[in-house]
Design goal:
The complex is a heterodimer of chains A (309) and B (408). By secondary structure, chain A is α/β, with parallel strands linked by helices. Chain A has helices at residues 41-48, 68-71, 89-99, 104-117, 133-145, 163-178, 190-196, 214-218, 236-240, 268-278, 291-300, and strands at residues 3-12, 15-25, 30-35, 56-61, 64-65, 74-77, 151-155, 183-186, 199-204, 207-212, 224-228, 245-252, 255-261, 283-286. In chain A, the strands form three sheets. A six-stranded mixed sheet of chain A has the order 6-7-8-3-9-10, sandwiched between helices. A four-stranded antiparallel sheet of chain A has the order 2-1-4-5, covered by helices on one side. Chain A has a four-stranded antiparallel sheet with strand order 12-13-11-14, with helices on one face. Chain B is 65% helix and 6% strand. Chain B starts with 13 loop residues before the first helix and ends in a 5-residue tail after the last helix. Classes of the chains: A alpha/beta (309), B mainly alpha (408). At the A-B interface, helix 2 and helix 3 of A face helix 1 and helix 8 of B.
Chain lengths: 309, 408
C-alpha cells in the first residue's frame, strides 16, 4: 500500500543529480522532504510523476511500478507552478480532473467542492492570470486535489502562501493523510515540516542522509537540558556533573539561562538539584533540538562537496 | 471527502485523452476574439469581393449620345459605329445645334452635306467617337466616289461588310486562353491556403510554447504521454482550421453562384473547393508537426518567432510562385515542377486545381508523396517533442534534440 522510492539514480551529463535515493511513504503518513537547493528533491518528485525518466531505480505503489495509469491517482504540485494563464479557473480544474479520468459530472462536483474549500469559489469564472499570486497558488493546490488523488506529491506547496492559506493547506494535507493517502511534500520551512510531518527525509547531494521521525533523527545526539538559575556562580555546571558542557548561555539582569549537554548516561535531575543548590530556579526542562539544527548538522557534516544542480 | 480506496474515476483510454486535449484546443480557441474576428473578416472579404466583381462586370457600357441632322445621317453613323465597335445612341436634331449640345449628355452633332461630314462639339471631340467619325468620313467619301463612278454604294457597302478573312490555326491547343475567372480563383485559392496554413501553424507553435512557458505541461505530463498531448493539439487546431477553410471556401462557392460570377467560365468551383480542403489538411499536417516540434525547443513566447522563421520562409516560397506566376501561366515549368515538392504542393497544387490546369494522376502522385512525408514528420516531431518539452530554460539546439532521440 505504501509509496516506495527505490534506488533512484539520475545524471545530467557528468552531474549526478540522484544517487540511489530510497525511502518509503506509508499510507496515512505525511512525509517531509527536505534538503538544500539542488540537493535532488525536485528531480526525485519529477521522476515519481514520470515527467522525467530515471537512469536506474523504480517507484512502486501498492507493490507495483507506478506507471501511467497508476500516476493518474497522484495529485501533483510542480515546483514551477503551472496552469493555463488564459483559461478560466473552473473550466481548467474540470479539464484537469477529466484528464485524470473523472467523469464530467464528478469533475464538476469536485471542482466546486475544492474551490469552495480553498476559498476561491467566487473566482471560478475568472481567468487564472487575473488572480493574485496567492490565489493562483490555491488554484494550483485545487489542481493537485481535484481528481481525488490517492497519493499526493507536492513540491514546495507552502512557498508563497499567506498564513491563512498555510493553515488551510496544512489542514487539507492532514485530512488527506487521515483518509489513508500517502502525502509527500518538500519545503524549506522546517518548523512547518517539524509540526506537520510524521516522518522526514533529508537529502543531500543526491543521497538520502537521514530518514525517520523527527524524534528518531534527534536520537544519537547527547541529551540537553535548559536551566534558568539567576544566582548560580560561574562553573557550577561542570562542578555538579563532570563532563557536562554549556552549549548556549543567555544572561539578562534577572535571568541566567544555560543549555547543558550531559555526557552519556547522566540524568537531568543531577543538574536540577545542583541548580536548586545555587538559589532560585525559574525554568528547567529538556531541550528539543529543532529540525533546523538537525538539518544544519546533517547537511554540514559533509558539505565539502556541496553542489548546485 | 470520498474514500480513497473507491476512486470515482475510470481508466482513461488513449483515444479519450487525445479527444479531450483536442476538444480543449477547439473550445478555447473558437471562443477567442482573434479567431472569431479573422473568420468573419475572411467571410466578409470573400462575399464582399464576389459582390464587387459582379457589380463591376455586370455594368453595361454607356452609349455615347450623338445628334444627327437627318435620318440618312443616322443610318450612316450607326453603320460606322458598328464597324468601329462604338456604342452610340443616335437622335435627330431639333434643328438648333447649339441647343442640342447644351445638353451635356450629348457628345456631338453630326451632319452630312454631300461629301462633307460636319461634326460639331461643345469643346472637344469625345475620345470614344474619334474612330467612328473618321470611318464615317471615309465611308461618305467612298460612297460619293462609288456614286460618281456609277455604282451602287449600298451594294458595295454590303459586300465590304460581308468580307471576312479565313483564319486557320495550326496549333489550336497551344494557345489556351486563360479566362480571367481562372486567374482570380487561382489567386484567391493561393492566398486563402497560405493564410490558413500560416495561422494554424503559428497557433500550434504558440500553443506548444504556451504550455511549456506556463509550465502547465508538467501537470499534464503526469497524466498523459507527450505524444498524446502533441497529437491532441495538432488535431484540435487542425479541426478548427479546417472548419475555417471550409467555411471560407464554401462562402466563396456560394458567392460565386449567388452573384453569377462563373457563368461562361471554364472554372469548376466544386472541385476547386474540394481540393482546397484536401490540401489544407495535408499541408497543415506537415507544417503543424514541424512547427510543434521546433516550438518545443524554446521556453519563452518571445523565442517562438526565431525558431519557426526558417519554416515560414519555406512556406512563403510556394506562395510567392503561386500568386505571382501560376494565375497567369499555370503551365510554367517552375510552377509545375515545384508543385511536386511535398512541402510546396499544399499551396501550388490547389492553385493548379482551381485553374483546371492539373491532371488527376499528378494530384495523386503529389498526395502520395505528401502522405509519406507526413508519416515521417509525425514520427520525428513526436520524438523531438517528447525529449524537449520537459526541458525548460535556454533554447535546446536541434542537434542535441536529435542526438537524444532513442528507440524507447
Amino acid at each position: 500500500m505504501a509509496l516506495e522510492i527505490d534506488g533512484l539514480t539520475k545524471s545530467y551529463g557528468t552531474l549526478r543529480a540522484l544517487d540511489g535515493v530510497s525511502f518509503t511513504v506509508r499510507p496515512g503518513e505525511i512525509f517531509g522532504f527536505v534538503g538544500s537547493n539542488g540537493a535532488g528533491k525536485t528531480t526525485t518528485m519529477r521522476i515519481t510523476l514520470g515527467v522525467l525518466d530515471a537512469d536506474a531505480g523504480q517507484v512502486r505503489w501498492r507493490g507495483a511500478p507506478l506507471d501511467l495509469s497508476a500516476r493518474r491517482h497522484v495529485g501533483y504540485m510542480p515546483e514551477e507552478r503551472g496552469l493555463y494563464p488564459s483559461m478560466k479557473v473552473g473550466e481548467q480544474l474540470v479539464y484537469l480532473a477529466r484528464l485524470h479520468g473523472m467523469s464530467a459530472s464528478a469533475a464538476t462536483q469536485a471542482m466546486e467542492r475544492w474551490t469552495a474549500r480553498l476559498g476561491i469559489a467566487e473566482r471560478r469564472a475568472d481567468e487564472v492570470q487575473k488572480l493574485s499570486l496567492g490565489n493562483q497558488q490555491r488554484v494550483q493546490l485545487c489542481a493537485a486535489l481535484v481528481h481525488e488523488p490517492q497519493i499526493l506529491v507536492l513540491d514546495e506547496p507552502f512557498s508563497g502562501l499567506d498564513p491563512v492559506a498555510v493553515d488551510v493547506m496544512s489542514t487539507v494535507l492532514r485530512e488527506r493523510a487521515d483518509a489513508g493517502v500517502p502525502v509527500i511534500f518538500s519545503s524549506h520551512q522546517l518548523e512547518l515540516v517539524e509540526r506537520l510531518c510524521d516522518r522526514v527525509g533529508i537529502i543531500r547531494a543526491g543521497q538520502m542522509v537521514a530518514v525517520g521521525t523527527v524524534d528518531e533523527l534527534r536520537t544519537g545526539g547527547a541529551p540537553r537540558w535548559r536551566v534558568d538559575a539567576p544566582a548560580a556562580p560561574p562553573g557550577w555546571v561542570e562542578t555538579a556533573v563532570p563532563g557536562a558542557r554549556i552549549v548556549r548561555r543567555l544572561q539578562t539582569p534577572d535571568s541566567l539561562v544555560v543549555d547543558v549537554e550531559l555526557p552519556e548516561g547522566r540524568d537531568g535531575q543531577e543538574i536540577l538539584q545542583a541548580a536548586i543548590a545555587t538559589g532560585p530556579v525559574r525554568e528547567f526542562g529538556p531541550v528539543r533540538t529543532p529540525l533546523t539544527e538537525l538539518f544544519r548538522h546533517v547537511v554540514s557534516t559533509t558539505t565539502s562537496e556541496a553542489r548546485s544542480a | 471527502m470520498s474514500n480513497p480506496q473507491a476512486p470515482s474515476y475510470e481508466p482513461l483510454g488513449v483515444g479519450r485523452a487525445i479527444t479531450m486535449i483536442a476538444w480543449r484546443e477547439i473550445v478555447t480557441r473558437a471562443r477567442s476574439k482573434a479567431f472569431i474576428i479573422t473568420t468573419l473578416m475572411l467571410l466578409l472579404g470573400i462575399l464582399g469581393g464576389g459582390y464587387t466583381v459582379s457589380v463591376l462586370t455586370d455594368r453595361e457600357p454607356e452609349p455615347i449620345a450623338v445628334v444627327v441632322d437627318a435620318q440618312a445621317t443616322a443610318t450612316a453613323v450607326e453603320n460606322a459605329a458598328e464597324q468601329t465597335g462604338t456604342l452610340v445612341e443616335v437622335t435627330t436634331s431639333s434643328g438648333d445645334i447649339e441647343a442640342d449640345l447644351v445638353d451635356t449628355d450629348v457628345a456631338a452633332h453630326v451632319a452630312i452635306e454631300g461629301q462633307a461630314v460636319d461634326v460639331t462639339v461643345w469643346q472637344e471631340l469625345d475620345g470614344g467617337l474619334a474612330a467612328m467619325v473618321a470611318v464615317l468620313a471615309q465611308q461618305v467619301a467612298l460612297d460619293t466616289a462609288i456614286s460618281d463612278l456609277g455604282g451602287d454604294p449600298a451594294e458595295v457597302d454590303a459586300a465590304v461588310l460581308g468580307a471576312a478573312p479565313a483564319i486557320t490555326p495550326l496549333d489550336p491547343e497551344g494557345a489556351q486562353e486563360i479566362d480571367p475567372s481562372q486567374s482570380i480563383l487561382g489567386l484567391i485559392t493561393g492566398i486563402l491556403i497560405f493564410i490558413g496554413l500560416m495561422m494554424t501553424g503559428q497557433m500550434v507553435a504558440q500553443g506548444v510554447v504556451e504550455e511549456k512557458s506556463s509550465r502547465v505541461v508538467e501537470l499534464l505530463l503526469a497524466t498523459v504521454r507527450p505524444w498524446h498531448l502533441i497529437t491532441g493539439k495538432v488535431l484540435g487546431i487542425g479541426a478548427l482550421g479546417l472548419l475555417q477553410v471550409a467555411l471560407v471556401g464554401g462562402a466563396g462557392a456560394a458567392s460565386a453562384a449567388m452573384f453569377g460570377l462563373l457563368e461562361n467560365s471554364p472554372v469548376r468551383m466544386g472541385s476547386a473547393v474540394g481540393w482546397l480542403v484536401v490540401w489544407f489538411v495535408l499541408g497543415y499536417a506537415m507544417y503543424a508537426f514541424i512547427l510543434g516540434a521546433l516550438a518545443s525547443l524554446v521556453s519563452r513566447q518571445e523565442d517562438v518567432g526565431s525558431v519557426i522563421s526558417p519554416v515560414m520562409v519555406v512556406l512563403v516560397i510556394p506562395y510567392m510562385v503561386g500568386v505571382s506566376i501560376a494565375p497567369y501561366d499555370p503551365d510554367s515549368s517552375l510552377v509545375v515542377g515545384l508543385s511536386y515538392v511535398p512541402l510546396f504542393s499544399p499551396i501550388l497544387m490547389p492553385i493548379r486545381s482551381a485553374m483546371g490546369s492539373v491532371e488527376m494522376w499528378e494530384l495523386l502522385v503529389a498526395v502520395g508523396a505528401s502522405v509519406v512525408l507526413i508519416v515521417l514528420l509525425a514520427a520525428l516531431a513526436g520524438a523531438i517533442y517528447s525529449r524537449a518539452i520537459v526541458r525548460t530554460g535556454s533554447r535546446i539546439p536541434l542537434r542535441e534534440a536529435f542526438s537524444q532521440l532513442r528507440s524507447s
